[in-house]
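Reminder to self: tokens first, then the designed residues, so the page reads top to bottom the way the pipeline ran.
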């Protein structure tokens, strides 16, 4: 989307700037929700890392048995 906005010859600079400002505004989260999102993402990242580690160990064990 950013490339489209920046390379569109029909879009004036002030309109592109306003569009980016609006998109940024839509993505804003209050502090409490930002903290909760960060906490939830950290938990999920930890779970995914453990799953990946387990998968790698299984893969290595399988390769050793071949």
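Designed residues (66 positions):
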């Amino acid at each position: 989307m950013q490339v489209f906005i920046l390379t569109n010859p029909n879009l004036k600079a002030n309109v592109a700037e306003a569009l980016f400002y609006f998109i940024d505004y839509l993505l804003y989260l209050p502090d409490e929700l930002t903290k909760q999102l960060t906490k939830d993402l950290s938990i999920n990242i930890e779970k995914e890392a453990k799953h990946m580690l387990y998968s790698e160990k299984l893969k290595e064990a399988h390769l050793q048995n071949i």
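The helical segments are 2-7, 13-27, 31-64.
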